[in-house]
Amino acid sequence: MSRHSHRRRAPQRKPRRTSRRTPQQQVVLRALTAGGLVAALGAGLGLWASSGDGGGTPAGSATSQQAAVGASAGTSTGDGADVAAPPASPTPTRAYPLSTTPRTIPAVRSHTPARGPGWRPAAGRRVVVSDADLADEGRLVAGELGLTYAGEKDDVRAGDLRLALNDDEGANPESYTMTVRGGRVTVSGPSDAGVFYGTRTLKQEVHGGGTASEGVVRDQPAKPQRGFTLDIARKYFSPAWIEDRVRELGDLKFNQIGLHFSDDQSFRIESDTHPEIVAGRHLTKAEVRKIVDLAASRHITVVPEIDSPGHLGAVLAAHPELQLRNVSGVATRGAIDISKDASANLLDDLLNEYAGLFPGAYWHLGGDEYQALTKSNPAASYPQLASAAVARYGAGASVADLATGWLNDRADTVRAHERTMRVWNDGFFRGTSVKPASDLVVAYWTGKEIGARKPVEYLSAGRKVLNYNDEYLYYVLGEPQTFVYPTGQRIYEQWTPRVLRGTTSVAAQYDARILGGSFSVWCDLANSQTQAQVAAGIRMPLRATSQKLWDARTPTLTWTQFRALANRLG
User: Fold this and answer.
1) Strand, helix or coil at 261?
2) Distance from C-alpha of 509 to C-alpha of 521, rounded to nearest angstrom
3) DSSP assignment string, 79-126
4) Which secondary structure element, helix H or strand E, spans residue 545, and what is its range?
5) Which of 32, 63, 85, 419 has a Cα at 20 to 30 A from 546?
């Protein structure tokens, strides 16, 4: 998401014509033409720098070109006469091989090769920007690559890395172009997000002292929403651990991190409106703001989730009067009584409070696994819900209608804060008279629920869908039920965003309605792994997910090559 709504347009420059000769060869040839001196060839030998040499003045720089001209033209005696340089035998120049495509995760979608020395970072070289809106991106990459951030500059120096906004109206806002030419690099895009992703490509390409390949990268993601979801309700994760994941996600070009912070076990973020519901170990609002700010600097939106009307056990522990009870008076785990006005008031308090803490464009309403609707006869098991449904929606209304109305009401609360909302697919019910709000995005995670609906039902009805497929993208601690830890190889070789349920892909005609997806960590058996083990366990699955959300086509690299690249990049 772009953080800036107004920018000055980057100054336009006429494209320079290209030549088969390198800039260094042209300098020497001009010197030969001007001075007619065969000796210039010998004097120009120092210009033919190896593509692997990071020291000295870059080949093709203004300084090296001026030195070549001075040496080729001879030395002035001060009285207007020139003294020719000592004669030298002609020496063949070095021809650069055609450059190769950068190796990054995710892989770039297009690279036009060229011949030249490429570019590598070196102390004293500058990062300059065309617009003050790119200052954050400029400072970040300068610090990462050991360069000097010089701010807005119009001059051109050898070795510069220039970040620029372009005028490509209508282009994918996350697209970018990276041009390596003449000893310099330019990363441009229609928004600061695109420019940021270009700096991630450059950072990976020169990782460990390497050289950025000569030529032009043109790149953009296939899917606009590329996420990672973390269950911090059932397991406490430290702010530092979450911040490390944000940095990792940013380098992999993810743009969302979901925080599921309320469940039956705990409510994990400080609350001013209802402090009684908050667990002892929790994130303070100051810690959350720091995470949100760090994420924004990486163009990542934090997506909060307060799941309801199920999974509210921690909230209900402090408000037992709102616990759903069956006809026999037995409490139903995690379920709030949606027939009571006080239940709605409590949830709306929380939704309104946290809208100020999470300023991003998205919100997850939950909606899954409401236990009242897992019964064979919900109306008989929970007569108070059946009565409330009829009272509100008329004769024939069901408990499922009441649950749908509950989500629509919570959507109204969140919509007032101008958010786009998503709901788990088992929060949508077939055959209800009350229809889910049209702007609710389906977070499709399973096909195992009672009355399961296939993804195509949502897609053919025109609803937008996000892919959370529990067959490939669910990392469930302790591997309960039938879950097994997902592997990067399986995601890399078998999954695409169109594989929404199980292992079957939906038809290509629905691709545009699939907005993207999310890899998720769920902490059902919280003590099964430490934070460090979770980070290690999700490392390759995250990289594979990143690749397939950025470009769903069959990857160029084999899994073995991809894994080796990931290990090299760190």
Assistant:
1) strand
2) 30
3) SS-EEPPPP----PPPPPPBP-----SSPPSEEEE-BS--B---TT-E
4) helix 531-550
5) 419
Contact by Cβ (8 Å): 214, 96: yes
Please report which residue ranges of 252-340 form alpha helices under DSSP H.
285-297, 313-318
Helices (H), ranges, 130-238: 135-145, 192-205
How many CB atoms within 10 Å of residue 490?
A: 16
pLDDT tens for residues 184-239?
Answer: 999 999 999 999 999 999 999 999 889 999 999 999 999 999 999 999 999 999 99
Helix, strand, coil shares of the chain as percentages rounded to 5?
Answer: 35, 20, 45
CA distance 338 to 18: 70
Q: Which two tokens stand for residue 452?
A: 């399961």
Largest CA distance in the chain: 113
Place of tokens 């239940």: 343
Eight-state DSSP code of residue 59: T
- The type of residue at 281 is R
pTM of the model: 0.83
What are the φ and ψ backbone dihedral angles of 138, each rounded to 5 degrees? Answer: -65, -45
How far is residue 85's CA from residue 82's CA, in Å, rounded to a whole number? 9
Closest CA to 99 of 111, 83, 85, 84: 111
Q: How does DSSP assign 495-521, residue by residue?
A: --TT--BTTBPPPGGGGGGEEEEEEEE
**46-75 as b/e: b if 16+ CB within 10 A:** ebbbebeebeebbbbbeebbebbbebbbbe
Residue 92: its pLDDT value, please? Answer: 47
Residue matched to tokens 């869908």: 465
d(CA 565, CA 556): 12
Which of 442, 489, 436 lies closest to 469 in space, CA to CA?
442
Torsion over CA: 92, 97, 98, 103 (sign) = negative
**Token pair recorded at residue 471:** 């067959």
- Which of 498, 506, 507 minimizes the C-alpha distance to 548? 498
Contacts of 485 (CB under 8 A, 6+ apart): 475, 476, 479, 537
Cis geometry, peptide bond prior to residue 106 (ω within 30 degrees of 0): yes
In sequence order, the β-bridge partners of residue 406 are none
Q: What is the pLDDT of residues 1-50, one digit of tens each?
A: 333 333 333 333 333 333 333 444 443 334 333 333 333 323 332 323 33
DSSP-derived secondary structure letter, 526: G
Q: How many CB atoms lie within 10 A of CB 202?
A: 24
Tokens read off for 232: 């911090």
What is the rounded CA–CA span in Å between residue 351 and residue 479?
31
d(CA 293, CA 445): 29
* Digit-coded pLDDT (tens) for 86-139: 444 444 446 899 999 999 999 999 999 999 999 999 999 999 999 999 999 999
